[in-house]
Specification:
Distance between the termini: 40 Å
Shape: globular
Radius of gyration: 21 Å
Number of strands: 0
């Protein structure tokens, strides 16, 4: 049954069938082949996965991000980031990195981040003399910082398959986010010094920077508010997601005063589409997860790793390598939902912290977002910069080094996991 499931799934992926549909079709084919269960089991397991109160946090966090991102907030955040770093070597590239860190507290999505920031910053950077390949690479890699800053959609998905507290994951994601921001900013700085990128000599205007900070403050406060409410138990993740929506509405209506009925309906539609895409992946992976549990795949895999690799550090490295390969071909949400049920029992068997596993999983799979052949943020950034995927990929080498270094540091240094 599992063999048929895997074979049909990968055949459908090769035929460019969307991951969610591939999961459902492959599951149905495997159940029909086995003859042990009625096909109705597919629909039953898909629906059962959605009957969860914590699952409501997903659409509300997506909606809050859509409401905040659809107005003038983006310009204000970028203006603040630009004023902070534009005068340094590689400053224009660093604006993208810092902007991704700040936008992550609003959107929680790497794809939304790459689209919003890329559309604004890449044409500007190219006009200022930055190589198109570098701007595409920088934007595609920096966008992944967004999924480490609360509210992170991948962390919510990981919590569904691991039962790890969302509050712990949100808090633990801050340090890797800061490490990646620092590392990618360093890439911009040294690339500019070595390759003589144009240097913006605009003098620092403290008054302007202070004014921009005040206008951007409501957005900067949002991830902090989420962390405080969750960490100190004032509200559940679902309640916090609803509070985030009301906060976004309040900011749009009373602070920025750019909220209109048309904009609200547009954000609602965008959030509904995004939620539908993610929910279909969740539903498709539910039946796959049930089939793997029935066939005892996680237990068999854990026993094989313990008997073959033996040392915990080798097992952790093997998990990282598997996730690197999986991230190149499977979308991040689907990869988390598919690999999570397999890796969680294995991590427990070697006493590997499940919060750390969540960080490593998101960090590693995020690399796949800017790695060919799928590379969603890479394709988005390359199309905006009007440069080939090959040219952009060549510029990504230092970003891969930084991201892998950060991932291995989180995996092997327990003190870096904030809980």
């Amino acid at each position: 049954m599992i063999t048929v499931l895997i074979a049909v799934f990968f055949i459908l992926l090769v035929l460019a069938v969307p991951v969610a549909h591939s999961l459902v079709i492959a599951s149905g084919a495997a159940i029909l082949y086995s003859g042990e269960f009625p096909v109705m089991l597919v629909a039953q397991q898909m629906v059962n996965q959605t009957l969860s109160f914590p699952m409501l946090a997903l659409p509300f966090f997506i909606l809050s991000g859509s409401l905040m991102m659809s107005g003038t907030l983006g310009d204000k955040l970028i203006g603040f980031a630009t004023e902070l770093v534009q005068r340094f070597y590689g400053g224009l590239g660093s604006v993208t990195v810092l902007g991704s860190c700040v936008f992550g507290g609003v959107s929680g999505s790497a794809v939304a981040d790459a689209t919003a920031l890329g559309g604004m910053l890449i044409p500007w950077q190219i006009r200022e003399g930055y190589p198109p390949g570098f701007t595409a690479a920088n934007n595609s890699a920096a966008a992944t910082i967004a999924i480490l800053i609360p509210p992170s959609i991948p962390f919510i998905l990981y919590s569904l398959v691991s039962n790890v507290s969302i509050a712990d994951l949100f808090l633990a994601g801050l340090l890797p986010g800061i490490l990646l921001t620092t590392g990618f900013t360093s890439v911009c700085y040294f690339s500019a010094r070595i390759r003589n990128f144009p240097l913006n000599k605009t003098p620092f205007d403290a008054q302007k920077c202070r004014k921009l900070f005040i206008t951007a403050l409501p957005a900067l406060v949002m991830p902090l508010m989420i962390l405080v409410l969750l960490r100190f138990g004032f509200a559940t993740p679902t309640e916090v997601s609803v509070i985030a929506v009301f906060y976004a509405l309040f900011a749009g209506v009373f602070i920025y005063r750019d909220m209109t009925v048309k904009r609200f309906l547009g954000a609602l539609l965008a959030a509904g589409i995004a939620t539908g895409v993610v929910m279909l992946v969740i539903m498709g992976s539910a039946i796959v997860g049930w089939m793997m549990t029935y066939a005892q795949v996680p237990q068999i895999f854990a026993q094989w790793c313990l008997s073959t690799l033996k040392d915990p550090w080798l097992i952790i490295l093997a998990m990282v390598l598997i996730m690197l390969v999986a991230g190149m071909f499977i979308d991040l949400p689907a990869a988390i939902l598919l690999l999570g049920p397999i890796f969680v029992p294995l991590a427990e068997s070697i006493q590997f912290n499940l919060t750390t596993l969540g960080l490593v999983m998101v960090l590693t799979l995020a690399i796949g977002l800017y790695t060919p052949p799928v590379g969603t943020t890479l394709f988005i950034s390359s199309s905006v910069a009007r440069v080939s995927i090959l040219k952009a990929s060549r510029e990504l080498v230092p970003y891969y080094v930084i991201a892998l270094g950060c991932t291995l540091a989180i995996a092997y240094i327990p003190a870096l996991t904030l809980t």
